[in-house]
UniProtKB/TrEMBL annotation:
Residues 16-26 have a biased composition (Basic and acidic residues). GO terms for cellular component: cytoplasm; nucleus. This is Small EDRK-rich factor-like N-terminal domain-containing protein. Residues 1-31, 54-75 are annotated as: Disordered. It is found in: Cytoplasm; Nucleus. Pfam families: SERF-like_N. PANTHER family: GEO09665P1-RELATED (PTHR21213), ZINC FINGER PROTEIN 706 (PTHR21213:SF0).
């Protein structure tokens, strides 16, 4: 059962790595949330940049008028 022991060692190693990252203050969820700056006015989905926001708006909400902040953005 060599693989069983390897699995346990791997889990312990990954747990130590996760604990070290947590102590260092590295939080992937917070970093990802910080990168999402633009919020869709219809469905409240978060997007990282205006170009992606405009593409989302044109594809998901074709009948709704485009918001003023997206007027000058070209895809």
């Amino acid at each position: 059962m060599a693989r069983g022991q390897q699995k346990i060692q791997s889990q312990q190693k990954n747990q130590k790595k996760a604990d070290a990252a947590r102590k260092a203050g590295i939080d992937q969820k917070a970093a990802a949330a910080k990168a999402l700056n633009h919020k869709c006015s219809v469905c409240l989905a978060m997007m990282p940049d205006p170009k992606t926001y405009r593409q989302h708006f044109e594809n998901k909400h074709p009948k709704s008028p485009i918001p003023a902040e997206l007027e000058g953005i070209t895809v």
